[in-house]
Amino acid sequence: MKERKLLMIPGPIEFAPEVMQAMGTAPTSHVAPNFIEVFGQALERMREVFLCPSGQPFIMAGSGTLAMDIAASNLIELGDKALVVNTGHFSDRCVDVLERYGAVVTQVNAPAVGGAPTLEEVEAALKENNYKVMTITHVDTSTAVGADVKGFARLGRENGALVIVDGVCAVASEEMRMEEWGIDVSLTASQKGIGVPPGLALVMASPKAMDAFKNRKTPVGSYYADWTEWLPIMEGYESRQPRYFGTPAVNLVWALNISLGQILEEGMDNRFARHCRYSEAFKAAITALGMKQVPVSSDNEATTLTAPYYPNGVDSGVLKYVEEAGVILAGGLHPAINTKYFRVGHMGVVSTSDILATVGAIEKGLSQVGYKFEPGAGLAAAQASLRDGKGV
Ligand code: PMP
Q1: What's the number of domains the chain is made of?
Q2: Is 136 helix (H, G, I), strand (E, B) or coil?
Q3: How far is the CA of 190 from the centre of ligand 1 (A)?
Q4: For 278-334, what is each residue's pLDDT tens digit?
Q5: Which domain holds residue 351?
Q6: CA R_g for the chain
Q7: What is the pTM of this model?
Q8: Which of the listed residues 222, 243, 266 is the one where a domain comes to its end?
Q9: How far apart are the CA of 269 and the centre of ligand 1, in A?
Q10: Structure confidence by residue, pLDDT tens digits, 86-107
Q11: Separation of CA 385 and ligand 1 centre (Å)
Q12: Which atom of ligand 1 is nearest to the CA of 137?
């Protein structure tokens, strides 16, 4: 019997075998010709994946929180005004990071957990003040709320704010057209839609963001995150000239280059469509099993994950049975409701059979804790959605 379980949490996700093989590449120097080529190519591919031909990519060792720290520390100076579009726990973290570097933060909050501020509310807030930056959490992993990044970014741009998007649970899975939508910083980590084990912080900055950084009056408050040090490194590797500031995560960069290549081979439009299709199928199954979701409206549901409330009489104990049936899921995260719901990631190399296996394991777990439902209802709904859906 296969020992390995299917990892369906919202990151780290399942990784492609070729990516895992790249993690095991024979040790090489960070200034060896073979690594220089890989690093340079990964930087070039990042621009294509972020759909930002004029962007400046940064690949640094760290997690998504470092990527947030990089954006805030390089763009914020003491007293700068920042507007946070708040859709959950990770938007709260944005507030903390911005404040750490001296920003004066205003938030536009969702009316309730699982909601999102409206375009009108955000526009009204933007008009009240001269914000240097505005942040949007593309997918808040605590609520599975997917924000209208295109709409919010347009408003931010029209009102003169640099638009920063926390795309940790979105980049390379949710539709995001960085340059076309006027986003100034898009940031992520390796372990989600990008499809590489945890350990890389990835940031793409628009020319406007780089100008804002270059026009700073005060030094960057973080030693490690400072673009003054990292910009020459990224420019160096891209022109195939190695430079040193901090040792790059050689094997992770190797794996990143493989994964970015696979993502581009699939094509960004196909990839966005595939994520929509699997998300629809999985959500159809959840509904058919009688479960509601944390996002209050189908307009603001993420496609990278689903956050179902446990049905009546069921609690987090069910996750143990789902795991025994072969699938690892995540519990709740948002402090206001964390015992009431669970989270299922379906991004990256996820396949039709992964979706069906996950629904099957949830049905098995639910029946083991005595929940009454029509056996197979979730699987039938997912199959029907996959059969009828357009897309990939
Ligand atoms: N932002 C969002 C939207 C996230 O989902 C996460 C991680 N779940 C983070 C930031 C922080 O990333 P990390 O855990 O890699 O530091």
Answers
A1: 2
A2: strand
A3: 10
A4: 999 999 999 999 999 999 998 999 999 999 999 999 999 999 999 999 999 999 999
A5: 6-11+268-388
A6: 21
A7: 0.97
A8: 266
A9: 24
A10: 999 999 999 999 999 999 999 9
A11: 30
A12: 3
